[in-house]
Write a structure and sequence with these properties.
single chain, mainly alpha, Arc Repressor Mutant, subunit A, 3-stranded antiparallel β-sheet, 6 helices, about 80% helix
Length: about 160
Amino acid sequence: MKCREGLVIKHQKQKELLKTIDQVNRLLRRISINNSHHGRSTYRLLSIIDELKVIDTRELAERLDIRPSSLNERLAQLESGNLIQRYRDESDQRSFNVELSSLGKEHLSKLILDQKRFEQSLEEILDDDKTVILIELLRKLVEGLRPLTEQNDHHDHKRKHHHR
């Protein structure tokens, strides 16, 4: 009987963990939407492009840890907003390079200010010690979840090719 109660409590803790992660994700998205129509993911993307000045889309997808198809959708949105410019790599016609437009640089400056304000808010919520602990826990979670996403990607790939 005690074993079953232990499993129920463990299951409840896991459900509470997932619920809390979902709440944090929703709040982070809402903060991003309120502060900027593009949000934190655009800040990261534009920051990487700005840092390197010109970057190949494959390398950019790797750095962002996203699928190339997802990146291309995102880049199309940014390109239509005149924030970036994409063009074929002259030395490798299969590749595309990306760089910031002048409007993209202006937009990134605004996002940098938003990011600094957000970081200050986080400092008010969590002290340094708690921040370090949370980073360690989240990294452990990422390391544990990454193989699961790779399995899903593999199954999705097999399913798509099976139905062709």
